[in-house]
Specification:
87% helix; elongated; mainly alpha
Length: 256
């Protein structure tokens, strides 16, 4: 019986230690964000990696999300003879929830894993130690550009997701389900406000911050060689994805 409580206590202490370390690397990142030198070249490299290289998977996910959600909604609304509400319902869901959340999950899987693997490899090959011996703060050099790039590009990717998802919904709703195009546009403009759009972008920026900090933290504190790098990469994706889903609830409760 004592062993069970001992195990629970160790797990609880381990979670608190991880939360503390994440907080420390976050505040170190904030501290270095506004201090010279500003590494513009590294920042643009990360902007390209996080944003441009993620565009295709965002486009693909968005168009089929809008399309399949419209198909599913048509069944529910046909019961109440309210098929004209398919467009506004899908667009509201995209701008408020599906856009930022699914963008966050895609970025966590593609970008977050790469960040953790890259920093983890640098840690186990002692490249991070080499930066410290050269009087270069590793957080300033490695984490700050990734955090800024994630916070900047995530809202842009979420906006692309929203727009392309609307196109997918429009194609299915108008071309396949026979809803008049004028009805789709007018109902969507009537029910969807600008607030729904920009609050989703705020969510996306927060998700980008969380993904970058968690992934960089896991990579920065990697140990155990190649096996440790693989473990850190897996953990970064899992924890980032769960953080996106859990924080989405609290952000929705606060903002809507």
């Amino acid at each position: 019986m004592t062993a069970i409580f001992d195990l629970i206590g160790r797990m609880f202490i381990g979670v608190l230690e991880e939360i503390g370390q994440v907080g420390m690397i976050f505040f170190r990142t904030l501290y270095w964000t506004f201090r010279r030198p500003f590494r513009i070249g590294l920042l643009f490299r990360q902007l390209e990696f996080v944003g441009v290289q993620s565009t295709f998977i965002i486009l693909l996910t968005a168009v089929f999300t809008g399309a399949v959600f419209s198909l599913q909604s048509s069944y529910a609304f046909s019961i109440f003879e309210a098929n004209s509400m398919i467009g506004p319902t899908v667009v509201l869901a995209l701008t408020r929830e599906l856009g930022p959340v699914l963008t966050g999950l895609m970025v966590a899987g593609r970008v977050g894993s790469a960040m953790a693997a890259e920093l983890g490899t640098m840690r186990v090959t002692e490249q991070i130690d080499a930066l410290e011996t050269l009087a270069v703060d590793p957080v300033h050099y490695l984490v700050v550009p990734r955090m800024i790039a994630s916070m900047v590009m995530m809202p842009l990717l979420a906006a692309i997701f929203d727009f392309v998802g609307m196109i997918g919904s429009y194609i299915v709703t108008v071309k396949l389900l026979g809803i008049p195009a004028m009805s789709f546009r007018e109902d969507t403009l009537y029910y969807v406000d600008f607030d729904d759009f920009y609050i989703g972008l705020i969510k996306a920026a927060f998700f980008g911050l969380a993904i970058a900090i968690i992934s960089c933290y896991k990579g920065y504190y990697t140990s155990g060689g190649a096996e440790g790098v693989g473990r850190a990469t897996t953990q970064s994706v899992v924890i980032s994805s769960v953080t996106v889903l859990v924080s989405d609830y609290f952000l929705t409760a606060l903002m809507f």
